[in-house]
Amino acid sequence: MMLGLLLARAGVDVVVLEKHADFLRDFRGDTVHPSTLQVLHELGILEAFLQRPHDRVDELTVTVGSEQARIADFRRLGTRCPFIAMVPQWDFLDFLRDHAQAYPGFQLLMRTQARELVRADGRVTGVRAIGPDGPLEIRADLVVGCDGRDSVLRGASGLAVRELRAPIDVMWMRIARRATDPAGSGGRIGAGGFMALIDRGSYWQCAFVIRKGGADALRTRGIEAFRQDLVRLVPQFADRVAAELPSWDAVKLLSVSVDRLQRWWQPGLLFIGDAAHAMSPIGGVGINLAVQDAVATANLLAGPLADARVRDLTPWLARVQQRRLWPTRVIQAVQVAAQDNMIRPLLERTEVPRMPFALKLLNRFALLRAIPAYGVGIGVRPEHVQSPEHLPVQQGASL
Ligand SMILES: Cc1cc2nc3c(=O)[nH]c(=O)nc-3n(C[C@H](O)[C@H](O)[C@H](O)COP(=O)(O)OP(=O)(O)OC[C@H]3O[C@@H](n4cnc5c(N)ncnc54)[C@H](O)[C@@H]3O)c2cc1C
């Protein structure tokens, strides 16, 4: 959606396909980081975005047993918006869509699922899709696969995927928030468990981390045993878990994968976001990395796409990968290290762990908390909008 907005803004005709009828999905996370807020500022739409309901997260905390540590302080970032805006992903997508639709070249087809790539003369020339009125074929100078970690187009491309380790899955559920609950999003660590809590005002979005493939064993133990696991981590839930989680229907299993394509492109085809590099939920950075990919792609491709004299986009496609591969590698390496060295050992412990020394240091020294804040909030190689607005549309430019 962000790439569609940026390219339409630059005068390129864009068709965005979305297989669902709406964006009301729960599974993508809600963290709009300072890097993404900066992009909205550069697009001149930040103020409008911040007028929408959102919760502001200035710092991150982790609770180990009964001890709490502050581990990241965004107020020290010195950026335009030194905080994370917690916004349901569907609100964020609706917002981007509303702004993209202001540009005449933008078209969004809902309930339209891309199924296959169309190829001619050794390059991708479009997609075949199925929409509410049946099959359709869309021809394009460039197809961008932004269809997430289970990308159909990635499978259809035959491009090689490098699997990285993902030893965890996530049980995803909502639990009502009471006025007496302590405010703020954060992590809870206890005997045999780790859970992230996202404060969504009227409820907590909970991500309970389990061993990869451990969901069946968990279900076999029964919903009551699971409720007790949650209460051990968050004692205040004792008064509501039974009502909130009457059965396993209220708990979704989200499979975590971490991988990336060896090559992100073929002639006429480019992958970005999770379709190019599936991200772990660790650090809650995947949405923001996908936005950064979109900004870099528009910066590099808006000009060539709008220029009818450019027949072969391949050099620019390779440049997108060159630009975005390094940040992706760094973030995935950190995620895999955190999964292996912190999360997995935690899941195997039967006693309440002690607060790790590194977290104690962060809690003690406020200045140090700027480091994780920068890593999570801004990340590696932040992108800035350079693609133009209102580039004159030239014949033949389309996405
Ligand atoms: C449990 C979990 C929690 C997470 N929490 C966070 C978090 O808090 N913050 C964060 O930044 N990241 C988080 N992430 C990572 C984040 O979800 C992804 O990195 C991010 O959503 C990637 O964005 P994307 O646009 O590339 O793909 P997606 O967000 O997956 O979007 C792909 C879109 O394409 C549509 N689509 C798929 N196939 C087709 C098709 N064939 N035709 C048409 N449309 C199609 C889908 O419906 C979807 O709308 C989390 C991941 C997991 C697994």
Give unreliable regions as ranges: none
Q: According to CATH, what is the topology of the largest domain?
A: FAD/NAD(P)-binding domain
**How many E-type strands?**
20
CATH superfamily of the largest domain: FAD/NAD(P)-binding domain
Helix content: 25-40%
Cofactors and ligands present? flavin-adenine dinucleotide
What does the overall shape look like?
globular
- Strand order, largest beta sheet: 5-4-14-15-16-13-17
Quote the beta fraction. Answer: 25-35%
Overall mean pLDDT stands at 93
Structure description:
The protein is an alpha+beta fold and 399 residues long. It has two domains: 2-59 and 78-164 and 257-343 and 368-377, FAD/NAD(P)-binding domain (3-Layer(bba) Sandwich), CATH 3.50.50.60; 168-211 and 213-255. Helix content is 34%, strand content 26%. It has twelve helices and 20 strands. A seven-stranded mixed β-sheet has the order 5-4-14-15-16-13-17, with helices on both faces. Strands 2-6-3 form a three-stranded antiparallel β-sheet. It has a three-stranded antiparallel β-sheet with strand order 8-9-10. α9 (286-306) packs antiparallel against α10 (314-348). It is globular and about 65 Å long. The relative contact order is 0.20. The model has no long low-confidence stretch (mean pLDDT 93). It binds flavin-adenine dinucleotide (FAD).
Tell me the layout of helices and strands.
Blueprint: H1 2-9, E1 14-17, E2 31-32, H2 34-42, H3 46-50, E3 55-57, E4 59-64, E5 67-73, E6 84-86, H4 89-100, E7 106-109, E8 113-120, E9 123-131, E10 134-139, E11 143-145, H5 152-157, E12 161-164, E13 168-176, E14 186-190, E15 193-199, E16 203-211, H6 215-221, H7 223-233, H8 241-244, E17 252-255, E18 258-261, E19 265-266, E20 269-271, H9 286-306, H10 314-348, H11 357-364, H12 370-377
Parallel strand pairs: 1-7, 4-14, 11-20
Antiparallel strand pairs: 2-6, 3-6, 4-5, 8-9, 9-10, 12-18, 13-16, 13-17, 14-15, 15-16, 19-20
